Amino acid sequence: MRQALELSIDRAALNQVVFNGLFQPGKQWVPPSNPYYVKSLPIPARDVAKAKQLLAEANAPHPVVTMTVPTTPELLQAAQVIQSMAAESGFDIKIQATEFASSLDLAVKGDFEAYLIGWSGRTDPDGNIYNFVSCKAPPALNTGHYCNPDLDRELDAARQTADPAERMPHYAKVAERVLADRPLIYLWHNRYLYGLSAKLAGFTPYPDGLIRPQGIRMQ
């Protein structure tokens, strides 16, 4: 059923409609431009016919799913686009708009069926994946309580070296398992846009989107 839901979604169209094409479609915990992105596992094309087939095989041609969504305008709009796309495959998605902190509380308690949420991102790939799928992850982040000991061994091995060439094979195995099991379905990656005064100097943008004021000065 998770595969059917993913096949119902056109990530490029979602990006165009909700984010005016400014964000980057994706299906992994790092964007395609990141050196830790597993290129052998590209973004799947939308396939409504295949999605319908999978639902029929699961004996659930018209599943009803309640999706909890924080009351952020862009997330609500994204939820509506997903709702519309998934309806073509047979899904009946009910959007449950919930205040952000309350939605996190519900997620931690496991009181949800589907949850649309974002992540600010971290520069190192470990910060984007470990606490969301590891058996040892806090329930506040691994809200689906996903646990796979084989996956944990690969995640731990990737943590034991800083050499990208040594880490990459471990993350490739992690990607294969996570994208097959779908405890999370990744849809897009934010792009951070900044507007600066011509009088400002010393600003350095970072991939995680956090602003470091050190060194910023007025000219």
N to C succession of SSEs: HHEHEHEHEHHHEEE
> Architecture in CATH?
Roll
Binned strand content:
5-15%
Number of E-state strands = 7
Task: Outline the secondary-structure elements.
Elements: H1 2-7, H2 11-19, E1 24-25, H3 48-57, E2 64-70, H4 73-87, E3 92-98, H5 100-109, E4 114-115, H6 126-133, H7 149-159, H8 164-181, E5 188-189, E6 200-201, E7 217-218
Parallel strand pairs: 2-3, 2-4
Antiparallel strand pairs: 1-5, 6-7
Structure description:
The protein has 219 residues and is of the alpha/beta class. The chain has one domain (2-194): Dipeptide-binding Protein, Domain 3 (Dipeptide-binding Protein, domain 3, Roll). 40% of the residues lie in helices and 11% in strands. It has 8 helices and 7 strands, in the order ααβαβαβαβαααβββ. The strands form 3 sheets. It has a 3-stranded parallel beta sheet with strand order 3-2-4. The chain has a two-stranded antiparallel sheet with strand order 1-5. Strands 6-7 form a two-stranded antiparallel ribbon. Helix 7 packs antiparallel against helix 8. It is globular and about 65 Å long.
